[in-house]
Predict the 3D structure of the following.
Amino acid sequence: MQAYEFIARPENGVIPIPEEYKGSITSNVKVIVLEMKPEPSARTKAGTRQKSNMLLAPTLDTSGWKFNREDANAR
């Protein structure tokens, strides 16, 4: 089985195969359609930017911790 990946816009229910693949595809094919949704805007209805907590790195105060490499590597 050979896989080909390309992006196409359906035209009247027909998905056009790019010219570069037309000569390679000569038998039946299995089609899986993944619809590409547009990326949601980072702006809210009021027009202000909304922070995404998913992109923020967690912070941790380690100033009171003591680290002993030998204890960490002991088994």
Remarks:
- The radius of gyration is 26 Å.
- Residues 1-36 form one domain.
